[in-house]
Amino acid sequence: QVQLVESEGGLVQPGGSLRLSCAASGSMFPINAMGWYRQAPGKEREVVAVINFGGSLNYANSVKGRFTISRENGKNTVYLQMNSLRPEDTAVYYCNARRLIPSTQYYWGKGTPVTVSS
To answer: Is residue 55 over pLDDT 90?
Structure first.
């Protein structure tokens, strides 16, 4: 069973920074992408950033230029560096992993709360 372990979020002041990490383990087949999603109170879950292990990166327009997703070399561990945080970034952040072999399967972390407030 694939497990995703996320680092703790926290309370950050507007304009501040926070880094989240996520490590995936237990997969018998290669994971080929990992990413971060978030869900704010009363809203649907939305994609924040995704890194395909082939090299491409994708970001939500709302975080471009402020957030950076990266992967630890050769490992199923990803980071989300969040800078210039805004109150509207407040949400529960979920790590996601995807495999394509032998079939497409998505895995989710339990989520970690991030609150941006003064």
So the answer is: no
Query: Are 22 and 6 contacting, i.e. CB atoms less than 8 angstroms apart?
Result: yes
Give the three-class secondary structure for 88.
helix
Instruction: Tell me the pairing of strands 57-59 and 10-12.
Output: unpaired
The neighbour count for residue 35, using CB atoms within 10 Å, is: 23
pLDDT over threshold 90, residue 1: no
Give CA–CA dist 33/83, Å, rounded.
23
Instruction: Tell me how far apart the alpha carbons of residues 73 and 113 are, in angstroms, rounded to a whole number.
Output: 26
* Side chain identity, residue 65: G
